[in-house]
Write a structure and sequence with these properties.
single chain; 156 residues; mainly alpha; coiled coil
């Protein structure tokens, strides 16, 4: 008996939700078929887009005056870091290959010279990277130089 009562309640609820869904769907179709309403929605969307564009421009201006990085600045730095890490990895591979080739082709007495030369070589590579890597970007040269130095120190 309790089961029959629950089934009847579920069927009643199901039929009412179906009617409600049909009613709401009909209203939505009527509204979306109205060209005036579509035009109003189009104008609202366009003004919203313009407002968001204006807010982004103001945010960039404020960030510039407060000397804080913008979203684009962070993305650019992330891209530079990625490129820098790839270049450092490439240079490390080239150095290892060169060292292996040099050790195979040099006499025994030159190996001691290479061990003492290792510290100076790392410093020269670091200086060369910091001087030549970012010559095109004057505004970001200090920040990228510091970033490069941190990356090189981290790899040690």
């Amino acid at each position: 008996m309790v089961q029959k009562k629950k089934v009847k309640q579920l069927q009643a609820l199901k039929s009412k939700t179906k009617k409600s869904e049909d009613t709401i769907s009909g209203i939505a179709h009527k509204l979306l078929n109205d060209p005036k309403l579509v035009e109003v929605i189009k104008l609202g969307s366009k003004s919203h887009y313009e407002f968001i564009k204006l807010v982004r421009e103001y945010a960039d201006v404020i960030a510039l005056h407060l000397n804080t990085p913008t979203k684009d600045d962070v993305a650019n730095v992330a891209q530079l870091v990625k490129q820098l890490e790839e270049k450092i990895d490439s240079l490390e591979e080239k150095l290892k290959d060169a060292e292996l080739g040099a050790e195979k082709n040099t006499p025994e007495h030159y190996q001691e010279h290479f061990r003492t030369y290792d510290k100076d070589r790392k410093k020269k590579w670091k200086d060369m990277l910091t001087q030549n890597m970012f010559d095109t970007s004057v505004d970001n040269s200090l920040g990228t130089k510091e970033l490069l130095e941190r990356l090189i120190d981290r790899r040690r």
